[in-house]
User: Fold these one by one.
Assistant:
Number 1:
Amino acid sequence: MITNLKINEACKRTYYERGYWTASTLYDAWEKSARDFAGRTYVKDGTTSLTYAQVDDKAGRVARWLVSIGVANGDVVTIQLPKWAEFAIAYVACLKVGAVIHPVSIRYGMQDLAQSLAFVHSVAYIGPTFFHRRDYEAELNQIKGSAPTLKGALFVDKEKDPDDGDTSLSAVLAAFEPLVDAPASRSDEVACILPTSGSTGTPKQVLFTHNNILFSERSYISVLDLTPDDVMWMPSPLNHATGFFHGLVSVMLFGGSTVLQESYKPADAVALIRREGCTWSHGATPFVYDLLSYLDQFGGSLPSMRFYLCGGAPVPSRMIEHAHRYGILLSESYGSTESCPHVYVPLDKVLEWNGAWSGIPYEGIEVRVVDNLHREVPRGAQGEECSRGPHQFVGYLNDRERTDRALDDDGWFYSGDLCFMDDEGRIRINGRKKEIIIRGGENISAVEVDNALSGCPGVGDHATIGMPDLRMGERICTFMVPQGTDRPTIASVTAYLADAGIPKRIWPEHLEFINEIPYTPTGKVQRYKLMEELLRRLKKEA
């Protein structure tokens, strides 16, 4: 059982008094949806389609297997699966035994997985036998000796039968009857450990209770006017909040369905959305950027798609207008792994605000803008965004120092994001504190530079960082993927910015060309990787 959670007791009392938190768990929510929507499709991938009843039955059998190997309430189960429908079976099985769900990236290599299993004291592992030219079963068997708490492994035999002696999902479904006993889990216990997406390096293991997740996802869907007939297109990985919480948990709460795209390609995505009649989605901006570019190039439309919620980065007005030409509302959704999501743009304000604002907080969530001493700044002044609410994480596993740096004793989470707030309580995210370029003593937002360059001829995907400079400290360096036949130059870029009326202080001073901008799976630019690449290039030139 994971203990030593950081929850402000006064906030906790308030959340219960106002009904934001209750005694119900994710298991209770699942049981209700499995009854109410039994025959409706819950989750679908390229080869498998499962109703609520089918997931419930199969998850019950996997839960019985988990109990048979000694998994109990509060134990951690690590799930390493692609965007397969079987992920739903795995996570619901965890709910049925009260296990803590720990989804990790399918990209984890043996060393990353071994370290992760040991760090969270995982008791069981659920992964594929084989996927994308990798033998996950063989890899797990090589490293399981370094995970002393591991009691068993279950391999999803979707692409390959398991080796002799290993347990497969097919075998468990055939051999075990569904578990019917309710788990001993409580709503204030940890339900999930989410590794951060790693935009700045080493992932942290973020802890969420049942109450955190249920409040977050109920708030999330409360402003979207969704019904059981709505179909979500989900291109994001299931080991992050976008894919797991929004793609599966939120959909489960109102009886909708999710279509998973295992391998993202714009042409396939367009065909999938049309075929399945997908009505909405949530993901990083690159996904929708690619969709719109594909439609521009090859024609057609996505008539069923009503809206796309954008996370990971501020949404430029040009992209909002571009999406609207195809009848899609592009709404920014702001949050982080620790505080996800807590600010949104109402769908009826998307066109009016047109990218000028990142949004307003959901009911029950507080947002402030503070200075370096955590004092609230005047409206309109830039500072660090911080939030407090029933949705928020309750600490980093086995890392009190980093927990206390990010989450204070009063329950405020300091995001590290820069923003300002107007008199109506709307905020505008300007980038990360770590994304500030200090040029000659002046603070310049890298995101502000990026936004100014959107639409510049010849400039495709791009991201800006600070380039070390002896005289100025840093200069503005933009990495970009060139478009068209003529590569942009400093002269052509600055001429465009001058014509657009962009202040000279945020004009790029150095350009670097790259095949693709590195992103986390949730769509955040990995600027530290661009800095590493820049330093390599500068060293080579020297």
Note: The chain is about 35% helix and 25% strand.
Number 2:
Amino acid sequence: MSDASEKPVENHVFEADVARLLHLMVHSVYSDKDVFLRELISNAADACEKLRYEAISAPELLGSDPSPRITLSLDAAENRLIVDDNGIGMSRDEMIEALGTIARSGTRAFMERIEAAKAGDGAQLIGQFGVGFYSAFMVASRVDVVSRRAGSEHAWRWSSDGRGSYTVEAVDLADAPARGTRITLQLMDDAKSYTSKWSVERIVKEQSGHVPVPIDLIELPDGEPSRIGDGTALWTRPRNEITKEEYADFYRSVAGHYDEPSLTVHFRAEGRHEYTGLAFVPTAKPYDLFDPTGKGRMKLYVKRVFITDDAELLPRYLRFVRGLVDTSDLPLNVSREMIQESPILTAIRKGLTNRVLTAIEKLAESDKDAFAKLWDAFGPVIKEGIYDDFERRAQLMALARFRTTASGDAHRSLADYVKDMKDAQAAIYYMTGSNLEQLQASPQLEGFRARGIEVLLLTDSIDSFWVTAAPDFEGKPFKSVTQGTSDLAQVPKLDAKETPDAEASATVKDFISFAKTTLADAVSDVRASDRLTESAVCLVAPEHGPDRQLEKMLQGAGRLDSAAKPILEINPDNGLIAAVAASTNEAFRVDAVNLLLDQARILDGDRPADPRAFAERLSRLFSQALKG
């Protein structure tokens, strides 16, 4: 027995973010507080899994108690709920790190969302941010955690009322579990139902019935333990024996989410390599979906022993998928280096990726509405694969869906686009930007609409990159409507009454030459446009190099020192252009040309190059108009 009496109680203040989070937990209202029990059971199961893994190289850690288990003790007389596990346990430093700080990113985002959430929404947020333990303070006025790390001769108690501070102290081994962690919740008056056997058993079976560790329930002081969770790994059971509800419960347990999976992929691969895969596509976006350092969250098991969730079993563009792979082809003491270099895992990664993508393809064919929701949530990430994954590029391009000038609120596939192309149309036209409404109002689209040519409207950041990596689709190249010549003259306009070409009159041609000379320092060329049918001017990028949107992105990221001079296109049929071209006032023409360039910049989402000069020119034109 250790002598804990000589060791003082340590007082600590919570990390600022934790203190704020606890305040929100205690003072927020949730429609479903039951989620706290799922979180504590998941943590206990993880501790048991970690012990199983460490015991591979150090079997003495198991001692005389080799079987993992979780015990829930209900004490109605004292209004307490106790969660015990015989897992790996925690040392003093591990306890402070795990329970006094929040190391994972996303905490601030979580708190901002939880503050804004309406009653009933909060339960969905808890599991998404790795703060499950703190959910205990939704139902407990005090939480005591006593833990002894496997193989250690010391045990420690962590205690807090959730009001900004906590204590840590050594405890006698007689007052601690032989190994693992005991969490005692002093329940609030309105949480007495969590001492009811019927209520707790219902919650466990609904939310944690498939954790791979047996769960026992006991009513204090004299009750006998009863098993309410058998610890059978769900993924080892035949698919036809598993209900949709059981899959959903397991998904919430393994993913830490509280939504329903939109797609479940459960399979067993046999042959050269044997393994079982169970993957879920969420309904809601994970909070870290666009984290640039984000990786997949698929867990790797070997013979039902948890090894790691950092094996990168899926490519980054499928990082929203949750689940696990269990294989018997790897040794239990697999090292990190072996994981990185293993040809077995390379084969598993390929097989798992193919299975997930095939399942998504089947969903696209069988349930268009469900696929549309999946694409709305994860399409921007899946499109990263068009840029990164050369091997599956054609498959991902066929899977992709887009908003277009012809689609309204619906999505269109590239196959749909190619099928409806005009006879003389040689390319798949696209336009990139950050805002759909702004794209739809862009003057560069006028000539395409006049000819009934469909244009892809691409608003995700990755769109500017994959269109440059994918050379074509079914032999049709991709071409930006904001770059180079448009080749629109090859396709007749829908309105036969309109002028069939963009030939400029002699006066307008002279004005274009004047504009080219006047703006020589700002643009690379000024030319008549067949893109424009209504607007006076627009800017386009040169034929070679990045288009306008990609150029802006590269400059903003510091990856492009200087931008290429744009091309100013002028609509020779526009009344304003004709009026300006007819003027013989040299000063007026200079001001007008510069204002037209700034107008094109504004239409392109930019600011005038020189706001002061822009304002002065505008004032001069107003004054001249008023005098006239």
Note: The first helix runs from residue 16 to 27.
